[in-house]
Amino acid sequence: MTLALAVLLGFAAGIAAGMFGVGGGILFVPTLIALGLGQVEAQATSLAAILPTVAAGTWRQASYGNVRWKPALLLGLTSVAGVLGGAQVALALPEDVLRRLFAVFLIAVAVQVAWRARTQ
Description:
By secondary structure, this protein is mainly α. It has one domain. The protein contains 5 helices and no strands. The protein has helices at about 1-20, 25-35, 40-65, 70-90, 95-120. Helix 1 runs antiparallel to helix 2 and helix 2 runs antiparallel to helix 3 (about 40-65). The chain is globular. The model has no long low-confidence stretch (mean pLDDT about 90).
């Protein structure tokens, strides 16, 4: 039952992310929390789920000649450093504080999406 619910929620979150042009993590983290994961585990799982997408997208775009490898490598290495630092901060914060910070982030994204819709 939990697996079917996870697939259904993942499908719905993917459709909503595609329709509204927001990153999947904005929807996947609350979905994973609804499935019983803690805030830290949900955020980590959402970030880990991006890796296959990045690999597939890079491979496909490289076949078109659209990847500039030096900037990509610099961005990738910098991202790894950011992930390590962010993970340390996330683990150091109490879970309720991390959850509240994520809620503030969700509100900021909602305001940005509404603002873009209003100005277009």
